[in-house]
Amino acid sequence: MSRAVFQVRIHGRGGQGVVSSAEMLSVAAFLEGKHSQAFPSFGSERMGAPVMAFCRIDDKEIRLREPVGEPDALIIQDTTLLHQVDLFSGVDAKGYLLINTSGDIAQLGIGEFVARFPAGHVQTVPATELALEHVGRPVPNAALLGGFAAISGEVSLDSVETAIREKFPGAVGEGNAKAAAAAFHAIESQR
């Protein structure tokens, strides 16, 4: 018996690689023999504007085409969106929440909301700092995919790294793959 489709919603701002993140996650799932789809949702295409992207992963063909309203996982690339948009709409308390921050949950003002999640399902990772260290740019998307692999187990770190290298060949891809691995190991060390 196959499992239900696993749905991911990624929130960030234009220029943070939100759309590329969903695409790379979809490729990582495909590399593991799964069916996947990725697509964006945004109003204006300007730098800094709120952006959402979606990814679905399943063992069978995916026929859904609408935006993800009830995600199994949220990846939040920019914490300034936490209190500006309804990021948590539709997320189930059994889901996963990965937030790009070097701080902890208490500092974000969402402690009461995340208290209902199982232990280990809500994690933070300093993805922007990892991107700066390994890539030289503050683009957290690839690092967050490594964190997603660790928190959810939906894709492997190897598949994430391969998808990143396919999207960004050369030194940029290598740096992003290292940022993803660093985020993966940071989350694994918290368990």
Which secondary structure elements does this structure contain, and how are they paired or packed?
Layout: E1 6-13, H1 18-31, E2 35-41, E3 50-58, E4 73-76, E5 96-100, H2 105-108, H3 111-114, E6 122-125, H4 127-134, H5 141-152, H6 157-167, H7 171-190
Parallel strand pairs: 1-4, 4-5, 5-6
Antiparallel strand pairs: 1-3, 2-3
Helix pairs in contact: 1-5, 1-6, 4-5, 4-7, 5-6, 5-7, 6-7
Shape estimate: globular
Helix content bin? 25-40%
**Strand order, largest beta sheet:** 2-3-1-4-5-6
The CATH superfamily is known as Pyruvate-ferredoxin oxidoreductase, PFOR, domain III
What is the radius of gyration computed over CA atoms, rounded to a whole number of angstroms?
15 Å
Range of strand content: 15-25%
Q: Can you tell me the CATH topology?
A: Pyruvate-ferredoxin Oxidoreductase, domain 3
> What average pLDDT do the residues reach?
91
Give the helices and strands as they follow along the chain.
EHEEEEHHEHHHH
List low-confidence stretches: none
Number of strands: 6
Helical element count?
Answer: 7
CATH class: Alpha Beta
What oligomeric arrangement do these chains adopt?
single chain
